[in-house]
Structure formats: structure tokens, C-alpha cells
From TrEMBL:
Species annotation: Kingella negevensis
Role, per record: Involved in the biosynthesis of the chorismate, which leads to the biosynthesis of aromatic amino acids. Catalyzes the reversible NADPH linked reduction of 3-dehydroshikimate (DHSA) to yield shikimate (SA).
Pfam families: SDH_C, Shikimate_DH, Shikimate_dh_N
One Gene Ontology CC term in the entry: cytosol
Subunit structure: Homodimer.
GO biological process, one term: aromatic amino acid family biosynthetic process
Domain called Shikimate dehydrogenase substrate binding N-terminal: residue spans: 5-89
Protein name per Swiss-Prot or TrEMBL: Shikimate dehydrogenase (NADP(+))
Amino acid sequence: MNYTVFGNPIAHSKSPKIHQLFAAQEHATIEYTRTLVDDNPQAFQAAVQQFFAQNGGGANVTLPFKQHAYALAQHHSPRAQAAGAVNTLISQADGTLLGDNTDGLGLVQDLTQNLQFSLKDKRILLLGAGGAARGVILPLLECQPAQFIIANRSPEKAQALAAQFHIQAQTFAELSGCFDLIINATSGSVSGSVPEVPPQIFSGCQLAYDMFYSAQPTAFMQFAAPNGAAHTSDGLGMLVGQAAASYQLWRNFAPQTAPVIAALRKELHA
Ligand code: NDP
């Protein structure tokens, strides 16, 4: 069976490696390729249609096409609907496409299973209001936290998400008090920068989680730990978790994520 990930750029994608490790667990043989698509909706639509016309088994979608994939899919999971973005395309028996969004599942799985962090009744702060933040709010809320605050550099984006999900928005400067979990869904760490939040908010924080991942602790992790965060984590486990959820949707097989995270971590350090 053939699978692919559509994106631009895409050469860096770890999805082929992750999905081959899942297939090995299933003792299955799959092909999983990277598909570079010109950055426009028409090119994306043509590439997706061609892939599924040639019996593609399923596809992942990454930047900058997650919203295009939402528009293209005829059916959407509630998670995709809430996110307004699709990272997983599943072919239906009638030839239509179902769009799902597994980013939030990946995050929740990493938090609750790999990091043993129970979300129920916790105070959660989500930093960022881009595509990644939007995709994880519903799955996090389904875990019944006691408090959920979103904050973003451009406050109007946080306010829009707060209105959609009935949560509270604050500006970075307004943030105060204690949070059990602080999630960095900004792309600051990509360029080594940290959102300009008051450092005191990490005091008493049980876990500071950065969706970005790298061989070394991210800029956010390096900021959170000395300011009081008891534990820090990057987002490698989320990456593998969202891939595992996609794999299960396509093949009805739930891969173990821990050995795959370990293999990728080893490769990052090589
Ligand atoms: P978007 O471009 O959609 O959103 C970027 C967000 O980061 C916006 O909220 C933006 O704020 C904010 N931002 C950017 N730079 C800064 C800064 N210097 N200080 C404060 N805020 C900043 O990106 P995504 O939502 O797609 O991705 C966000 C992060 O999540 C990336 O690091 C990405 O790698 C990671 N990610 C990880 C995944 C995983 O599986 N581990 C999956 C998906 C994403 P503003 O609105 O003000 O511009």
C-alpha cells in the first residue's frame, strides 16, 4: 500500500521513517513517500487527486497545505472541523476523502502516556494561536482541565480562538499566577526565541512543553527550567503520536510510539 506526505518544503520530513518503523511493528510492507507540491491550492488539489486516483492508501498533509486539505476533503472529523485544518486524508469506499486532524491526539498521547501527565483538573496555558494551537485545543479540552487560558503575541488571534472554544484569552503581559502545564505552540523556538511572557509563570509549573523539537533542549525549555518548571519536554513525542494516530486511521493497527521516539531521538543526536 502507498502513502505519502504532501508539503513544501518536505525534504526534512521524518514521516517516511516513522511510518516505516510502524509498518515493521505490524510486519507489513508499505511505501511512504514525500511529495513536494508547488505552494498553491490548484497544485495541491491536482497532486492529491492524482495520488488517490493511483490507489493511494492515505496521506499526511503538512505546512502550508493543512487548510487547503480541509477545503478539499468532502467529509471532516469533529477534530478537523474544530481545527479548520486537516493533516490526515483517508480515502472512503465511495471515492470521497475524509479529513482528520491528529495533531491534538498526538499531543495528548505524548502528555498522558509518555510523560505520565494527567490533564484532568489541571490549569493549562497555551501559548500561540497558529495552526498547531488551533488543532490541539479541542483534544485538550476533552481531557477536562480545570482552567484553560490561551495567549498569543497578536492578541486578536487568541481572542478569536477563545471565542470559538469558550476559553479565556490573555495577553502575554497579563499572564500571572500558576499553571500546571504550559504548552508552547508558538514557532519561536524555530529561531531560538522565546515568547515574551513573565518568567514568574513558570514558578510551580509541573511541565513546560514545547511543540518544537531539536537535538538540544529548545529555547523555550531552556527558559522554563531555570524559572521554575519542574519538567520540560520538546514535541518529538507529539510528532510520533500524530503519525501513529494517522497510521491507525489508515490501517486499523495501533503502533507503539515509545520505540519510535527512541529511534528518532537517537538519530537526532547522531
Ligand atoms: P503558525 O505559523 O501557524 O503559527 C505561529 C505562531 O507562533 C503564532 O501564534 C505566532 O504569533 C507565534 N510566534 C512566532 N514567532 C513568535 C515569537 N518570536 N514570539 C512569540 N510568538 C511567536 O505555526 P504552527 O502553529 O504550524 O507551528 C507552531 C510550532 O509548533 C512550530 O514550532 C512547529 O514546528 C510546531 N509543531 C509541532 C508539531 C509536532 O508534531 N511536534 C506539529 C505542528 C507544529 P503571531 O500570531 O503573533 O504571529
